[in-house]
Amino acid sequence: MENGAVYRPTTEEHPGPARGPRSGLAAYCFLGRLKWPRRVLKFLQLVLSLLAFICEEVVSQCTLCGGLYFFEFVSCSAFLLSLLMLIVYISPLYDRVDADKVKLSDFYITLGIGCLFLLASIIFVSTHDKTSAEWAAIVFGFLASVMFLSDFVIMFCEKREESQLRKPETTVRTEALTEPLNA
């Protein structure tokens, strides 16, 4: 018997990425790692921070530019970090990295961005020149900070529920210990 006849019915060639119900880029994306409300919040964070950045970039001149520059830095950083976290959650990279580390990073990144975006929006409100592009950037900035902070609150509640589920019940012994230890 030749080797080809033995192995032919039991082996299969490498299936490749186009095999199965999904093909192309969709075969590598999995949205099920995030629950529906968090998935929507992540998408809104991404879109609103991008819109805030775009509206801020349209501003052609400013008198007090410090608030504008800080808002620019925070909105661009928020967009890039939220894009990074969304890519990690939906790509196969999530399977290669420890899931607890991804969730912990997302927890702190979301809190930091939410607080900085809120601070940058408040500073930008106090230093802007009242043009329509600045007002739009401020509105998108406040909306994005609300999305980041609400996502943080949801993650905090989930983390708290998870820690209470893992916490073992403590049983208190009511009877007195009267037996000697070396009996």
TrEMBL record:
Bilayer topology term: Multi-pass membrane protein
Keyword hit for Electron transport: no
Domain of life: Eukaryota
Subcellular location field: Membrane
Residues covered by region (Disordered): 1-20
Domain MARVEL: from-to ranges: 33-160
Keyword Repressor appears in the UniProt entry: no
Transmembrane regions listed in the UniProt entry: 43-71, 77-95, 107-125, 137-157
One Pfam entry name: MARVEL
A cellular-component GO term for this protein: membrane
Annotated PANTHER family: CKLF-LIKE MARVEL TRANSMEMBRANE DOMAIN-CONTAINING PROTEIN 6, MARVEL-CONTAINING POTENTIAL LIPID RAFT-ASSOCIATED PROTEIN
Protein name stated in the entry: CKLF-like MARVEL transmembrane domain-containing protein 6
